[in-house]
Design goal:
Elements lengths: L1 H13 L7 H5 L17 H21 L5 H25 L6 H19 L3
Helix pairs in contact: 1-3, 1-4, 3-4, 3-5, 4-5
């Protein structure tokens, strides 16, 4: 039960404050999309992806440790953080925005560093 609460808390931390509008959820993405800024490897949003994924891994690990052993809490935190990043990109696509594989790479790098850090916690 506590693990479920911890994962829900992690999702609340990583979910944007404003949900998509009903119109965005009800209608499929447009066939002709507006020009989008180029998806660069180094950009402000990539740093946001990195640090939020890093933080989500640490917070998820701390929350999972309240109910799970160390060796079980680590993969649970990593899985939850990676799933959050994938969900965010899927949500962007559903709202008519681009699905960015580069964002997912930065998410994975943040999760990897977070996993390395929590593996050193005794």
């Amino acid at each position: 039960m506590t693990g479920t609460v911890a994962l829900l808390a992690l999702q609340l931390v990583t979910t944007p404050a404003s949900p998509p509008t009903e119109a965005a959820e009800a209608s499929p993405p447009p066939l002709i999309q507006q020009p989008v800024a180029p998806d660069r490897w180094l950009a402000e949003d990539k740093l946001r992806h990195f640090f939020l994924s890093f933080a989500a891994t640490g917070i998820g690990y701390g929350a999972a440790r309240t109910a799970l052993e160390r060796d079980t809490a680590r993969p649970a935190a990593v899985g939850a953080a990676l799933a959050s990043g994938l969900w965010k990109e899927w949500r962007d696509r559903r709202a008519g925005g681009p699905f960015s594989a580069k964002d997912l790479v930065w998410d994975a790098l943040g999760v990897a560093l977070g996993a390395l850090l929590v593996s050193e916690i005794r």
